[in-house]
Amino acid sequence: MAVDLKKRLSSCSDYELDIRLHVLHFRLLTEQINEEDIRENLGNLKKLDFKKLSYYKSTDRHKFILYFQHTRNIIHKYVIDIRDSEKKIRVISVHKIHADSQRKFDKYAHR
Fold it and tell me: Considering Cα of 55, then 60, then 61, then 64, what sign does the dihedral take?
């Protein structure tokens, strides 16, 4: 069941952004992603500004996978969970994807 992100975020402008501890302590260091970039990207989404968002997909009514173009070759992937009862947008996971490496992997892995 695909859920439209724009429709879902239209009621989330006052929701708190909750970056989970394992993201703060492990993912940001290992993936070398800046916390301010995450806050800025998701803050823009809360304002319904989708300029940096390249692609998204929903796994269920609450969970979304977002892809942001950081540079020409680097894409940031965020997994977020939107909970209306808590009025929070949780950042569950972040990843840095190198587009060239991913294309090579896809080419050779799916022969």
Answer: negative
Model pTM score:
0.84
Q: What's the CATH number of domain 5-109, 3.40.50, 3.30.2310, 2.60.120, 3.30.300?
A: 3.30.2310
Give me 10's structure tokens: 């239209």
What residue type is assigned to position 62 of the chain?
H
Q: Give the separation between CA 106 and CA 42, rounded to whole angstroms.
A: 28
**What are 10-39's pLDDT values in tens digits?**
888 889 999 888 888 888 888 888 889 999
Q: Which residues contact 9 (CB under 8 A, 6 or more apart)?
A: 45, 46, 48, 82
Domain ranges of the chain: 5-109
Helices (H), the chain: 5-9, 21-22, 28-31, 35-46, 99-109
